[in-house]
Amino acid sequence: MKGLNINGLESEIPLIQGGMAVGISLDKLSSAVANEGGIGVIGTAGIGMFFEECEKDYNAACINGLKKVIANAREKTSGIIGVNIMAALSNYSDMVVTAVEEKIDLIISGAGLALDLPSYLQAGAKTRIIPIVSGLKAATLIFKRWFSRYGYIPDAFIVEGPKAGGHLGYKKESIFSKEHQLESTVPQIRELCEKIMRDHGKQVPLIAAGGIYDHTDVEAMFKLGADGVQAGSVFIATQECDADIKFKNTIVNASKEDIVIIDSPVGMPGRAVRNKFLEDVGKGIKKPINCAYRCIKTCNMKDAPYCIARALSNAAKGDMENGFAFIGQEGFRVNEITTVKEVIKRLFPEYETGRKHGGKNGT
Fold first, then answer.
1. Which helix (H) or strand (E) holds 188?
2. Spatial separation of the C-alpha atoms in residues 220 and 224, rounded to whole Å
3. Ranges of H-type helices in the chain
4. pLDDT tens, 320-330?
5. Among 8, 7, 11, 27, which residue's Cα sits nearest to residue 19?
6. Crossing angle for the helix pair 182-200 and 136-150, nearest 10 degrees?
7. What pTM value is reported for the model?
8. Architecture, CATH, for domain 5-243+336-347
9. 77-119 pLDDT, tens digit each
10. Domain ranges within the chain, ordered by starting residue
11. 4 vs 168: CA distance, rounded Å
């Protein structure tokens, strides 16, 4: 194993921290991961809900909030910082433009096909762009669209399997099917990356995501053909995670049986920790909705039993009675509050964590 080289942007450890939105991975977590030699990622969805101006102007709160969080992260680290911007966001364009203007190191985009992402790169921009895909079909479509319309090749692919937490890029009936597991999809997309290298001379790293807990999982992904891994849930129960301690303890205390697949109001299945809030929803009890955000394009506000943005932000702030926690399939294995350094040691025991140099290569 070696660090990731994403179009000249080099990390010392082949690790991307999953961008967990609505207040879970902001500047504290992302900078801590970057300081250990990985790539720290800020989750941007719902970021405005953690700033006072949110109730007056949600979009302005998101834009200004993103600027503040990026600035705060850069005060804490000289390592690599990225943002995760869901393609399904109503303010997707504004968030991407803001991230590029702030000269973020990389933009990761999933929860829909980010078919026009290269169009936002300004002349001379050094921001790398990485789509999250669920399989070969999506990866091929994005590659062909980006190359034919913009002459741009993805700087990497993140292949997120159905063991991931949060919103999943699969139909509910496909989540546990063999053909959609990383064991099937990673080798297929590895072949696509190799073809891109042969035909166009660009190295496109493949990062495997979903269900990554320890070094055994990491080794398995590398044997399949991955160049790196993305991990999210394992970083929630760390001292550096931006979420409230009650949220972190929800992850620590979750058993395997507590982890369930839910129907999200945004029209995607999701994986979460079962609690009274979700049990009430399952019984048909509707939570009052007064949507002032219109944050997700696909959200069915008329029939939704609850506002997912409000529920997730409540949980991140520690109000678990009025919200819930997303989690990956292997999240039940997290059983204590630890540190980012200790999580990375579990993933990469052969690495000496901690950045070995102060700057970034290739920038």
1. helix 182-200
2. 6
3. 27-35, 58-76, 92-101, 136-150, 182-200, 215-224, 245-253, 276-282, 308-316, 340-347
4. 999 999 999 99
5. 27
6. 30
7. 0.92
8. Alpha-Beta Barrel (3.20)
9. 999 999 999 887 778 989 999 999 999 999 999 877 889 999 9
10. 5-243+336-347, 245-331
11. 25
